[in-house]
Design goal:
Length: 436
């Protein structure tokens, strides 16, 4: 049995499944104490601290001259990958750009009859930092993270976008990261990672000017650094382990359902993969499919651990109860693998992203379709949203009060101020009511 099985009759049976998912937050251990020291060191010593940490953990021969990636190296990265791969990256970037262009908000204002103008000014932040994990010593680069983080910033109009990524043992970055940056037109890239890379983006160093917003996934040290720097910088979110929940009916293919569960289970031993179905025989077939597909996966140990600890096959009496459970757990990725997904999508209240029907597996959204794959995890889809253009913008209120507005409402405003015992507030209005 690759993962536990549950039978749910109604909301009274949701507890064990919710508890299963709630137990996945990565233990910080002594990470917070270590990260606090790293942040303080980078803030005090700047580039010297970056060089020390990077030479200790990533590249022994690292020095300050290695920090910034030269333009020729970025171009060389693009030249080093197959043209067909570059074309796929460019097409994915175009899809992501088109989707996020629809999110862009514009400033607005509304005049009133008395001449008062109220509105909102929407502006991008001045600078954004994108953290890109190298992955397995730089050999499994998360180039999709670069696309998903940088393109919305570009659409928002951020004038300066900085990429940081840990170097490989020889001091280089994976050419696919450089190629993706080249395709996007990003020129400011630094070979620095972990918590010290986040600190450099937040505080600035001699070589790296500070940014306003930092986005991108990372390990517990990256996540802890982002958490500790909230208030100094804006961030995308505090992300937990990846997760997928699938609601299926008898029309779904068990082999496909198993493959979709494994697409998340291979991420991390703490990833969660849950399949709900109205068909008990189908769940048995999914279980068998998981067993034989696991044996063929390169990352089968990771996937097997994930399924054993945080996977579930859940029998539900009908799709209505299935939807109630989906909303209760608020999954990061939700696949509606049913004959008529459009009949149920209106019942979705809490999910990071919804994948509709049998021919829309989660990797379609992860890499290519256009919607952002940086999504709320650990049930936070109840109150938060995917990374978007809004992550990189600010909204400033606009108030243009005409003389007649103060004359008409000044006494009321002064009264509200005095109810809060703020006399100077009241006088600031009343002085404008006096005849000169």
């Amino acid at each position: 049995m690759p993962c536990p099985s549950f039978t749910v009759r109604g909301p009274e049976d949701f507890g064990p499944i919710r508890a299963l998912l709630a137990n996945r937050e990565e233990a910080a251990g002594d990470a917070a104490e270590k990260v606090a020291r790293i942040l303080a060191d980078v803030r005090q010593r700047g580039d010297a601290a970056l060089v020390d940490f990077t030479s200790r953990f990533d590249c022994k021969s690292f020095d300050a001259d290695c920090l910034r990636v030269a333009p020729k190296d970025i171009a060389a990265g693009l030249a080093a990958i197959p043209e067909a791969d570059a074309a796929i990256i460019a097409e994915a970037a175009g899809n992501i750009r088109a989707f996020h262009a629809a999110q862009k908000e514009r400033s607005w204002w509304v005049p009133s009859a008395d001449g008062t103008m109220l509105g909102q000014i929407v502006t991008p932040v001045d600078a954004a930092g994108c953290y890109v994990p190298g992955g397995r010593g730089g050999e499994t680069p998360l180039l999709s993270s670069l696309l998903m983080n940088a393109v919305p910033a570009q659409v928002a109009g951020v004038p300066r976008i900085v990429v940081v990524s840990p170097p490989r043992a020889d001091g280089s970055l994976n050419p696919y990261i450089l190629a993706a940056a080249a395709i996007l037109g990003i020129e400011e890239i630094y070979r620095v990672g972990s918590a010290w890379g986040i600190a450099a983006l937040a505080y600035g160093t001699g070589s790296i000017a500070p940014v306003d917003v930092v986005v991108g996934p990372g390990n517990i040290y990256v996540t802890t650094a982002k958490r500790m720097l909230i208030g100094t910088i804006g961030i995308d979110m505090i992300a937990g382990p990846s997760e997928i929940a699938i609601l299926a009916d008898a029309s779904a293919n068990p082999e496909w359902l198993a493959a979709d569960m494994l697409s998340q289970a291979e991420h991390d031993p703490m990833a969660a993969a849950i399949c709900l179905s109205t068909d008990a025989a189908q769940l048995e077939a999914v279980c068998a499919a998981l067993t034989h597909q696991l044996a063929e996966l390169p990352r089968n140990e990771i996937a097997a651990t994930s399924l054993a600890q945080f996977g579930a096959l859940v029998a539900v009496p009908d799709l209505e109860v299935g939807m109630e459970l989906i909303n209760a757990i608020a999954p990061e990725h939700f696949e509606l693998c049913v004959a008529d997904p459009w009949a149920l999508v209106g019942k979705v209240r809490h999910a990071g992203a919804v994948f509709m029907g049998h021919h829309c597996p989660e990797p379609v959204g992860d890499y290519f379709a256009g919607p952002n794959h940086v999504l709320p995890t650990m049930g936070t889809a109840r109150f938060s949203s995917a990374l978007s253009v809004a992550t990189f913008t600010k909204k400033t209120s606009l108030i243009a009060a005409a003389p007649g507005y103060v004359a008409a409402h000044g006494a009321k405003i002064a009264r509200l101020a005095r109810l809060e015992n703020l006399e100077a507030h009241a006088r600031s209005v009343e002085c404008r009511l006096k005849k000169s």
